[in-house]
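Q: I have 297 residues here and want to know how they pack in 3D. Can you give me a structure?
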Amino acid sequence: MFCLNRWVLVSTVFVFTCGGLTVGKSEKLSYGEFFKSNRYEKACELDFEKFAAKHQPPQHLRNAIERNKEKIRSTGFGEVKGMPGFIVKHFDANRVINADRMEECIKRFNLDRLAVAKKYIAKVDGQWMVFAEMIKPDSSKKYDSTSLEFVQQLAKLAEETGYRDWQGNWLFNKEGKLTCIDSENDSFAIGRSRLEDGKTPQHCKTQYVLSLAIFGGSIDPEARQWLQDKINALRKSPEGVAEHTKNTPDTILPWSKKFDGPNINISNVKQHLEKLREESYGMRQGILSESMAFART
């Protein structure tokens, strides 16, 4: 696809979401025509297929899903008997997208004391669902998340992603890494610990790191002092108080693309997810209408 003077050159064989050669007969479409065309829908579908393939469950989980389909449908959200080690989380693929982005952030900044619970997507009787790894610490070991090293790594993660939903959502895994178990979009919403001074934007690095103040006196004195100094430094810096929106490079993870890989267009994935949601809603409405019509006969 070539983007020239508000026109899009589209191949009838392949559709690319960035610059590159096309193969086959081409035609010129405006941006509006392209995004309304079935070619755009196909591009979104192909990216979703790649996304689903990347996050397909391991074989033992696929076997467990097949054996427990009825229990999974009736549970919807939570633990399912017969599937130890995993939790069903409806079909909110944003949890998977955000987990991917958090993993990349952890890798990029070498936050080696942190981890993210694995998440997979799979179809259950034609309906997509999310399955999350259940994190259980080794009860024979003692863990401490209040040290300076942990607080520094959590602060860096917060600064880069806007994560703010700390309480109850981070557990130690068996390797001793502090692991995020909740990566839904709401985990990046405005937290309870924040500045309300009328000057500091709600979405900025200062507010993100300040969310860690919810731990208060439970962290080591050295870590507490470091965190206070970090927040004060951010408050005084242009970068720390720069407002983040959906259109700024630095922003909360659900809006950000800076941790996305090159092979899957996540914007296309989200567009296809929206289509699936609309189709699912339409199907439910159709079933409801049929049931009401039957009841009246």
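Q: Anything worth noting?
A: The longest strand covers residues 127-133. The CA atoms of residues 13 and 24 lie 6 Å apart.
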